[in-house]
Structures are given as structure tokens and as C-alpha cells.
Write a structure and sequence with these properties.
The chain is an alpha+beta fold and 458 residues long. It has three domains: 27 residues, no CATH class; 104 residues, Phosphorylase Kinase, domain 1 (2-Layer Sandwich); 252 residues, Transferase(Phosphotransferase) domain 1 (Transferase(Phosphotransferase), domain 1). The chain has twelve helices and 17 strands. It has a seven-stranded mixed β-sheet with strand order 3-4-8-9-7-6-5, sandwiched between helices. The protein has a two-stranded antiparallel sheet with strand order 1-2. It starts with 13 loop residues before the first helix and ends in a 13-residue tail after the last strand.
Length: 458
């Protein structure tokens, strides 16, 4: 508190006093010389100043709005928007370590999954992929899970982490693997948690550590083909391309029911675009050659890969085998060469009953011919996954190959087929009823008669 009173005094010059009395403002310029400014002039200058300021602000706002609209349109119509529909910042804006739900799935702590996998013990490894290692785990609530641990050296691990979460949380199908949850992106490592499928992969049973003669009977193989085709048809109807269809990504439960897995490089693909231009990614032996050549991804790329899977199912051979002839290292080329020659005995695994059961002979050769269509070099000649699924169902119900076969169900007998292999010789036999020479590897053949239409002789 003030304990003394003091006075403040100042002297006003006569000129300044006269200026003030006249309604002006007493001012000094930069040289400290007296100036008497009229009040109206001052207000006018103030108005001009404020007008310039607000005008500049308005111009900046208009520029920002126009830029935003332009960027929005560019993003809306750019194919790149289909790779991921949300920015990382949008996806993770509610991402909090320790939160219970994030992006529609459970959030697990790193320590919880570390304990579930016994500190990521090598004895718990279920398999290694191109982007991570999968471990068996058991949660505290007793659930068995598969934990994918993305490689640290993978520079695109965050994109693949987000991609798989986004795609699997929007899809629901009995033959697609279920995603239980994940760690936070701020966690020590990026981990994805799936339902555990106990019976390994289709590759394990065909030519891996679970392969045994007779373990995969033909009815089981047919069901696997149909369920996988159904899952892929569902993906395509949901505007998703898997991009890495292969027997290692087809999981089997104890009843040999299919669970398609691994969506790390899958793509969202709305049906209002013809293709996505992107560098080819996938697994050697399964990659669509047109995709590899033109860098254009379509749903028919999955169809090609599924064609390779069909050939593996009927042959029990791997997609790539360096011990085969140099022009037949890829199973697709090997199969095409055998199919166009009707040399099914050199392609189809005899343990399926090909040599002993007429019904199985007819079904396996029909599946081989369907695979031939899927493996066409010209994408337009390949069927859609819906057509593939319909045909497989007809083969299973014995409607394929008899009088019920129609053009709408991929009538290979009446269709014009473009041969898919660049390695076919010019004198290959296309029909056992009428021998025709093949003038060019890419020529169109008239009324190609399938080998399954020929009466089997024993």
C-alpha cells in the first residue's frame, strides 16, 4: 500500500495547447518536431491501415480455401488414394498406449504378448514371411493366438501394419483369418494378433513338413479350392485385391477348412477404376506376368495366382522348382505345357486317385483346364473369381463336363483360348480327336476341345 502522496506534473506547450483546443492531436515526428494532426485525417489513415490489414487477411484466407479445394480434388481422383483410405494421423489420432480399443480392435501391450509367446521363443515360431515372423501364443484368458512380429529392417512395416488392420477390420468371412488386435504404434514393436489356425498351411500339406501321400484326398482338395475361391470372390466384391495369393497364405484348421491370411500388401480397389499402377509385389511363381510387365494391378492378378494354387492342388508340386527344366521352373509354365498336350498323367498327382477312379480323373482334368484359363497371359481371357467359384462348384457337383455346361460357366470347349506360355512348340497337339498345329504361341485356336471331353481309355 502507498504510504505517501505524490504529484505528477507536466508542462504543455502553447502550440500543443492551441492544437488540442482546435480539435487536433498534438504529435511529434521522428526529428522531435511538433505537428498538429487533424482528427479526421487520423481517422482516415487508421481506416486505410485497417482496410489494408483486413484485405490482406481475406486474400490469404481465399488462397488457403482455393488450395484446399484443389488438393481435395487431386486426392479424390488420384489412384494413390486407394492404397490407404486414411492418413496415418487420422488413423492413429486415438491411438493411446494402454487403451482398450483402437481402430475397432483390441490393443495389447507389448509385455502381454511377450509373455504369451514366451519372450518370442524360437520354439514358438509358426512361420516366417516376407514381412515378419509369426509366433504361437497363449493369452492369460486361455485363448490361443498367432502373433505376427514385423521385421525391424522393413522400411514399410508401418504401412503394412496399418494396411492389414484397416482391411481386416472391414471384412467378415468364414474363410478369412480373424484379427483379434494389435499393439499401439507407439509400442516397442509392431505386433498383430490373429486367431490361431492349428493345422499349418496348404503348402505344408502339399510339399512341406506335413506332406504325406493320401493325407489330402481329392474331396478335401476340392473343398480347399472352393473355399479359397469363395474368400477371394468376397474380397473382390469388397473392393480388395489380396496381391499375394499362395499356398503359404492359405491356412487350414483341423477339419481342413480354409482361412486366407496375410493382407500386408493387399490393396483397396474400388470398381470405378480399371487398374492401380504400382511396382509389382508378391511371391515369385505366383505373380501375374502382365502385372510384372506393365506395373498394372487388377483383380485378374489374383485370378492368375489362384490358377497356380489350383495346379499345386492337383500336382502336389511347388510353385517354383529349380530342379525342373529351365523353361518350366515356374509351375505355371510346366502345367500349361502339359495341359495343351493333354499329358495329365505327367501333371496330376496319382495319389489323388487319378489313375484308379474315373470320377476323380474327370474332376482333376476339369480343374486343370480351369487353371489353364486362369493362367492366360491376356487378362481379358481369364475368368473372374466369381466365375471360377461357379465352375468349381459345378465340377464338384458333377455338372461340369456334361450337357449342362453352358457359355456362362466358362465353356472352355467352345471358347477361343489364347495360349499362355511363350515356350509352346508350334506343333503341339490341342485335340485328341483332330490334330491341329499351333501356328503361334499367341494365336487364337478355334473350338478347342478339352481333353476331359475325350473318352478315357484304360
Amino acid at each position: 500500500m502507498l504510504s505517501h502522496v505524490f504529484l505528477v506534473q507536466w508542462e504543455l506547450s502553447y502550440d500543443c495547447y492551441q492544437c488540442h483546443q482546435g480539435g487536433g492531436h498534438c504529435q511529434t515526428d521522428k526529428t522531435n518536431k511538433f505537428q498538429c494532426t487533424d482528427a479526421k485525417t487520423t481517422k482516415s489513415k487508421l481506416g486505410v491501415t485497417l482496410g489494408a490489414v483486413f484485405g490482406g487477411v481475406g486474400l490469404v484466407m481465399i488462397t488457403l480455401v482455393v488450395s484446399f479445394i484443389w488438393c481435395y480434388k487431386e486426392k479424390k481422383f488420384s489412384p494413390s488414394r486407394f492404397l490407404l483410405t486414411k492418413k496415418f494421423s487420422d488413423i492413429f489420432k486415438h491411438d493411446v498406449e494402454g487403451g482398450s480399443i483402437y481402430f475397432g480392435v483390441l490393443v495389447f501391450s507389448y509385455s502381454e504378448l511377450e509373455e504369451a509367446t514366451n519372450d518370442f521363443s524360437s520354439s514358438r515360431v509358426l512361420g516366417d514371411g516376407g514381412f515378419g515372423t509369426v509366433y504361437y501364443g497363449k493369452l492369460k484368458d486361455g485363448r490361443e493366438v498367432a502373433v505376427k512380429r514385423l521385421y525391424e529392417h522393413n522400411c514399410k512395416r508401418m504401412q503394412q501394419f496399418v494396411n492389414e488392420i484397416e482391411i481386416l477390420t472391414r471384412l467378415r468371412h468364414n474363410n478369412l483369418v480373424t484379427l483379434y488386435g494389435c499393439t499401439s504404434r507407439r509400442s516397442r514393436e509392431l505386433l498383430l494378433v490373429y486367431e490361431y489356425i492349428p493345422n499349418g498351411t496348404l503348402a505344408d500339406h502339399l510339399h512341406g513338413n506335413k506332406a504325406k501321400d493320401g493325407s489330402l484326398t481329392w474331396p478335401i482338395c476340392m473343398n480347399i479350392a472352393i473355399e479359397t475361391a469363395g474368400a477371394l470372390a468376397y474380397l473382390h466384391a469388397s473392393d480388395v485385391i489380396h496381391c499375394d495369393v499362395k499356398t503359404n497364405n492359405i491356412l487350414l484348421d483341423h477339419n481342413f477348412s480354409v482361412k486366407v491370411a496375410d493382407f500386408g500388401i493387399s490393396r483397396l480397389f474400388p470398381n470405378d477404376v480399371s487398374h492401380i499402377s504400382t511396382a509389382p509385389r508378391g511371391t515369385p511363381g505366383y505373380i501375374d506376368p502382365k502385372y510384372h510387365e506393365c506395373y498394372q494391378l487388377t483383380s485378374k492378378s489374383d485370378v492368375y495366382s489362384f490358377g497356380v494354387v489350383l495346379v499345386e492342388l492337383i500336382s502336389s508340386m511347388p510353385a517354383v522348382d529349380m530342379n525342373r527344366h529351365s523353361q518350366e521352373i515356374n509351375l505355371s509354365n510346366f502345367a500349361i505345357n502339359k495341359i495343351v498336350k493333354c499329358a495329365f498323367h505327367e501333371l496330376i498327382d496319382p495319389s489323388l486317385g487319378f489313375d484308379s477312379d474315373t470320377k476323380i480323373w474327370e474332376m482333376t482334368t476339369s480343374v486343370a483346364e480351369l487353371a489353364f484359363l486362369c493362367l492366360q497371359t491376356d487378362r481379358d481371357m481369364r475368368p473372374t473369381m466369381v466365375e471360377v467359384l461357379d465352375t468349381l462348384n459345378e465340377i464338384q457337383t458333377s455338372e461340369f463336363g456334361n450337357e449342362k455346361r453352358t457359355e456362362s460357366n466358362i465353356n472352355a470347349t467352345e471358347a477361343k483360348i489364347v495360349t499362355a506360355s511363350p515356350f509352346l512348340e508350334s506343333e503341339d497337339t490341342l485335340s485328341l480327336k483332330q490334330v491341329k498345329s499351333l501356328p503361334s504361341p499367341n494365336s487364337v485356336t478355334d473350338k478347342w476341345i478339352t481333353c476331359s471331353d475325350i473318352t478315357r481309355t484304360k
